[in-house]
Amino acid sequence: MLLLAACELESGGDADGADSTMAAGDQPHVMAANDTVAGRYLVVIGGCNDCHTPGFMQDPNSVPEAQWLTGLPIGFRGPWGTSYPRNLRLTAQQWDEETWVQTLRTRHTLPPMPWHSVNNMSEHDTRAIYRYIRSLGPAGQAAPLPAPPGQEPTTPYFDFVPQHMERMPGGPPPGSPAAPGPATPAPTTPSPTPPADTARTL
Question: H or E element: which one contains 83?
């Protein structure tokens, strides 16, 4: 049975910002029979498969666990350009555990990866997720590289640009993205490959 571990704060402290001062063992985290079981639970309830597993959003029950987290060749296009969910099965084989933990605690890259939430995950839970994914072994191919804003992707993609913001009561909020202009044709020659650790969203 899985339970969320209770977190005791020092006398006089408050919940806001407490995570930054607590030791790793004192942070809230999932408790299970072992880290692999905890990691699997976190992957499932965290919705990791929704983006990182092909076909999962359409029919979760049809995708066997052996195919989980192999990345998605369909892009997410928005004001940031087009990003692709990384193949976490390959990433967990390429990175050591400390690199994984540090990345999940500090990285801020392209949407729609919910980096603010991931950055606040406890160290125990980040390690559990790593150990679960690594236990699955390598599978699949690397996800495509991201495309910059204005460049038409060469792959299928989901459009994350809000439409008709003028219909909002009181008008569009400050900073709302404008509709994209005409797309730039995809280049005929490949662009230089960014460093492996920054090329894709996690």
Answer: strand 81-83
Name beta bridge partners: 31.
3
- Where on the phi/psi map is residue 119: left (φ > 0), alpha (ψ -120 to 50), or beta? alpha
Q: Cα separation of 183 and 186, whole Å?
A: 9
Q: What is the pLDDT of residues 165-202, one digit of tens each?
A: 889 898 877 766 654 444 445 554 444 444 445 445 66
Q: Using one digit for the tens of pLDDT, what is the confidence trace for 112-134?
A: 999 999 999 999 999 999 999 99
Q: Give start and end residues of each alpha helix (H) in 10-114.
A: 35-45, 48-52, 88-94, 97-106
Tell me the C-alpha distance between 45 and 97, whole Å.
22
The structure's pTM equals 0.75
Give the closest residue to 36 by CA, choosing from 146, 135, 176: 135
Say if strands 30-31 and 81-83 run parallel, antiparallel, or are unpaired: unpaired
